Amino acid sequence: MRVPFIKMHGLGNDFVVLDARNDPLPAAMTAARAAALADRHTGIGCDQLIVLAPAGDAGADLAMRIYNQDGGEVEACGNATRAVGLLAGGNARIATAAGVLVTTGNAQGIAVDMGEPRLGWEQIPLAYAMDTLAMPVGWDGLEQPVAVNVGNPHAVFFVPDCNAVPLDVLGPQIEHDPLFPARVNVNIATVVDRQTIRLRVWERGAGLTRACGTGACATAVAAMRRGLVEREVTVHLPGGALLIGWGADNRITMTGPATESFRGTFAWEDYG
Ligand SMILES: N[C@@H](CCC[C@H](N)C(=O)O)C(=O)O
Predict the structure, then answer these.
(1) Domain 2-108+258-271 - what CATH class?
(2) Which atom of ligand 1 is nearest to the CA of 213?
């Protein structure tokens, strides 16, 4: 059976979107099928696979489920939320495993209210109690990260030059460290000035990506908690820039582009 897909991206963080709002998928998505579809050599290829569904009784316009390239289902993806907001016409209420997120179309692209960050060690989650603003741990020169959960777990390291860090080597080590029982997204950030951050991200379950929306949110919150930047900041990732605000209401807003690349179909049984 042929199934339609939409290829989208936010700053090069790319997605295969399966729209099951009106026509259900032939069978439930599994981790193995998600990983096969996401594979860049033998599948369609993407950082995350997104499945859209009716909102049900979630009090939203639609629902989305998020699968990393390794097939694992996760709670949040900032760039995919903006992409789905674009597909839904710009202004949408999207039910996710991290709650209902609201997108708004504007001249800068799509903005999304990512909700409130969670900062307690057990909310990240971490394996044991510690200060999340300066964790007393380190990996090969990367020291004292900030831990932030923005629907998904992040560790943020501030360094003088984020491009000098071998993130392809240290990222997987930190992602799989037992300190992070749910694994973790690894953010390496350099504060340029009080309005500007440069960021590279090793994503849990996907590796190095061109951009990570939740990583930009977590990094902005970490820098704001440390008093390094203002409450609105531009985060420059390899794929482009996101504007992140953390309001007096404790809610994070992310604004940036979302793009549809092309549409196609695939044979469901080829990826079983
Ligand atoms: N690219 C995403 C984050 C996707 C999920 C992440 N890898 C995780 O495992 O939590 C974004 O734009 O936020």
Answers:
(1) alpha beta
(2) 12
Residue 256 Cβ < 6 Å to ligand 1: no
| 217 given a catalytic annotation | no
Would you kindly state where each structural domain of the chain is located, as residue ranges? 2-108+258-271, 117-250
User: Is the pLDDT confidence value at 199 over 90?
Assistant: yes
Q: Does domain 117-250 have CATH number 3.90.920.10?
A: no
**Same CATH fold assignment for domains 2-108+258-271 and 117-250:** yes
The CA-to-CA distance between both ends of the chain, in Å, stands at 12
Helix (H) or strand (E) segment spanning residue 234 = strand 232-237
Q: Is the reported ipTM for this assembly greater than 0.85?
A: yes
The C-alpha angle 130, 131, 135, rounded to 5 degrees, equals 85
Known binding-site residue numbers for substrate: 13, 48, 68, 78-79, 152, 185, 203-204, 213-214
